[in-house]
Amino acid sequence: MAHLQPQTNHHHLMALCAINEAVNRSLDVDAVMQQALERVLDVLQLDAGDVRLIEDGRLVLKAARAISPQFIAAEHAVPLGSCQCGRAAQCGEVMLVENLSRHALPRHACAREGFAAVISVPVQTTERVVGLIHVGSRTPRTFDAADRELLKAIGHQIGVAIERAQLHEQLRALNAALEARVAERTAELLAAKAALAQKADALHQMLLEERRIEERTRARIAHDLHDGVQQLIVAALFETQAAREVLATHHEIADQRLAAAQALLRRIEAEMRDAIYSLRPVALDVHGLVPALRECAAGFSRASGIPCDLHVSGAPRRFDPDAEVVAFRIVQEALNNLSTHARADRAAVTVHFDERQVRVEVRDNGVGFHLAAVEQQPRSHLGLIGMRERAESVGGTLDIWSRPGGGTRVTLRLPLLPAEVGK
User: Fold this and answer.
1) Fewer CB within 10 Å: N-end or C-end of the chain?
2) Residue 417 is part of which domain span?
3) Assigned domain for 242 exists
């Protein structure tokens, strides 16, 4: 019989290889258990069986072949330590009953299923028992020590495969949970981004409307001054002139007083005209940015004594009224800052039109300043903040350059809308 041992070993090795190949075809736990059961039954030439996993102290049936529904229902969950299956899983040892009829267990579920021999093989990893393979033969069978070792090796082999598949399932579940969390977080971030964009747009519209209200108010005040106060002043001038003509030969003192009144009225009229222009230059509404800036530069030169030239390049044209107002107000503010702080003796305003934008620049040859130092003192650069806010309210940008002793340059860029190009 000794010459049969190598053949037996070879048969067992081939069986282990076949089972290993079967259980490694998939990482799905159910598929691994079903494949393992099929191969064990084929290798051992047995009739039927099932695979169970330990869950909450019980062996729960997970896969089966050639077993009746009644057996599955009755034996779906077996407590550890109960029956041969529960004891085999509990102690981690292969248990065999080679002839069930000799054990006087006619009412045993396996006997009712028609099994003559049953085998319970613990499915275990290197650390613990995770389940059990329970197979049976409907004819008596005998198993030697080599068969027991083969069954034990099969149990280890299948245990490792099941554990690997379970780890894969856990990893996939964790990955799915992570992806769901990432998707949820991404959705939250997108929603937050959309909300921020909506609020930014609302703020932009609010700022734009604020500017429009400001300009409408300026225009209304200028209109009221022009139609009301200014006309009264002009009428008063005519009246005093007429009085002077009547009283010229009669009352020298009255003539002096009336002359003084006329001078005062002329001064009021001149100051009122300047105030009206400052509130809303008529040229801006009627003729556009370039004529309004020409008047602005000339008025600045008269008031400050600083020569200010206007240079225009490109093809001048009208564009968005709100943007024209912004450009005019920024130039006004820049020239006001220049006269107050720059100590310059020369200034220039440049307007350049191209196909996509209008660039307006105000520069001087004054004392300049450290821009970074000024911007770190909020109270001292509110004017700069206001100029930038005006530019941004109509989609423009404002750049300021300055250095001590090198003068200052304020550059405004306003985009032209497609409908405005070529106007």
Assistant:
1) N
2) 282-423
3) no
Residues 18 and 150 in one domain: yes
Within a domain: 99: yes
Q: How far, in Å, CA of 307 to CA of 333, rounded?
A: 17
**What was the pLDDT predicted at 4?**
42
Q: Which residues, in sequence order, are CB contacts of 392 under 8 Å at separation 6+?
A: 204, 207, 398
Residue 197 lies in a domain: no
Q: Looking at residue 108, what DSSP letter applies?
A: S
> How far is it, in rounded angstroms, from Cα 45 to Cα 107?
26
Residue at which a domain ends, from 146, 169, 192: 169
pLDDT at 217: 65
Q: How many CA atoms lie within 13 A of 330 on its CB side?
A: 37
Domain boundary among 169, 201, 228: 169
**DSSP letter, residue 342:** I
Q: What percent of the chain has pLDDT over 90?
A: 28
How far from the centroid of its chain's Cα atoms is residue 115's Cα? Answer: 65
DSSP 416: P
Write the DSSP assignment of 55-84 as a string of letters: ETTEEEEEEEES--HHHHHHTSEEETTSHH
* pLDDT tens-digit map of 73-106: 988 998 988 888 888 888 889 888 888 877 655 4
162 lies in the same domain as 287: no
Query: Do 26 and 159 fall within a single domain?
Result: yes
Please report the DSSP string for 110-151 in residue order.
HHHTT-SEEEEEEEE-SS-EEEEEEEEESS-----HHHHHHH
Sign of CA dihedral 60, 63, 68, 69: positive
